[in-house]
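From the methods appendix. Each design record in this collection lists the tokenized structure first, followed by the designed amino acid sequence. Records were kept in a plain field format so they could be parsed without special tools. The example shown here is representative of the layout used throughout.

RECORD:
FOLD TOKENS (289 positions):
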């Protein structure tokens, strides 16, 4: 049996790291946008005596540890042979939530095959992301869809995620080499700096929950937290004449809203660009065979 599912990508503008002994309650407070570009996973399942999970990304065999861990969480001790073929619309390790999108697309598809609740797919992906330090809040935001504020950390219903109205076009630009989220999240000094700025930034957005304010606060956070490189700041400032831009957390990249054509023209001087929209729907099955 084969099922195909799509999951949007996700960019975070700012965040606060929120630890917990309960992995489903652990995560981050923050804000960001779900994207119409994401990951499409085709999951093929056969019953066997011995469980196995094979993962392929963009046509090539790949390790995909977050996806594999999520699927193993869903499978438990069941004897299935699972093959997952995932196609990413955006590059990995650039702040576009591709590890979460791939894991969620595959988990939503497998959940349909196994006839289990969608919530179990979200739980599997959230735990896998936390365990592998590849993200903190992407799964919680993607569960909600649209432009989100993660008001309370963790996966809902333990966490709380609210929406900001709007479905603007979003321009993305990659400016250089990949950043590994796990490296930054494992650095105690960086975590302290992130949380000093992140907590107050989330509280400010909750008082004025608009797209414009989200973008302004994202830029302030990127600078205050010392996460943004000079090139990212230069690109965001160049884009400010045509809209608002900031760093995509955590990548060597920026996201921007405003005049899409103008933003592409300006940001193309700094790196490769993509244009997409905010996705309000979240992960969904798109084909069953």
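DESIGN:
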């Amino acid at each position: 049996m084969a099922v195909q599912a799509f999951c949007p990508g996700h960019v975070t503008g700012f965040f606060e790291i929120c630890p917990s002994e309960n992995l489903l309650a652990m995560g981050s407070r923050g804000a960001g946008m779900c994207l119409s570009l994401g990951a499409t996973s085709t999951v093929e399942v056969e019953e066997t005596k011995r469980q196995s999970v094979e993962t392929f990304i963009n046509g090539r065999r790949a390790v995909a540890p977050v996806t594999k861990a999520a699927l193993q969480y869903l499978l438990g001790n069941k004897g299935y042979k699972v093959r997952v073929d995932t196609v990413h619309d955006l590059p990995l390790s650039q702040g576009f939530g591709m590890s979460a999108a791939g894991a969620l697309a595959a988990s939503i598809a497998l959940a349909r095959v196994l006839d289990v609740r969608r919530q179990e797919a979200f739980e599997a992906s959230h735990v896998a992301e936390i365990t592998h330090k590849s993200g903190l809040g992407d799964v919680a935001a993607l569960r909600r869809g649209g432009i989100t504020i993660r008001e309370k950390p963790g996966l809902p219903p333990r966490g709380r995620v609210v929406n900001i109205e709007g479905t603007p076009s979003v321009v993305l630009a990659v400016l250089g080499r990949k950043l590994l989220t796990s490296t930054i999240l494992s650095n105690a000094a960086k975590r302290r700096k992130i949380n000093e700025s992140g907590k107050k930034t989330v509280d400010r957005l909750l008082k004025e929950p608009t797209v414009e304010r989200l973008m302004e606060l994202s830029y302030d956070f990127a600078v205050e937290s010392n996460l943004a490189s000079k090139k990212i700041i230069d690109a965001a400032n160049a884009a400010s004449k045509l809209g608002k831009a900031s760093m995509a957390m955590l990548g060597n990249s920026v996201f921007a809203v405003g005049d899409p054509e103008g933003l592409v023209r300006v940001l193309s001087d700094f790196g490769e660009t993509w244009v997409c929209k905010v996705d309000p729907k979240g992960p969904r099955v798109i084909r069953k065979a």
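APPENDIX NOTE: The two ends are 6 Å apart (CA to CA).
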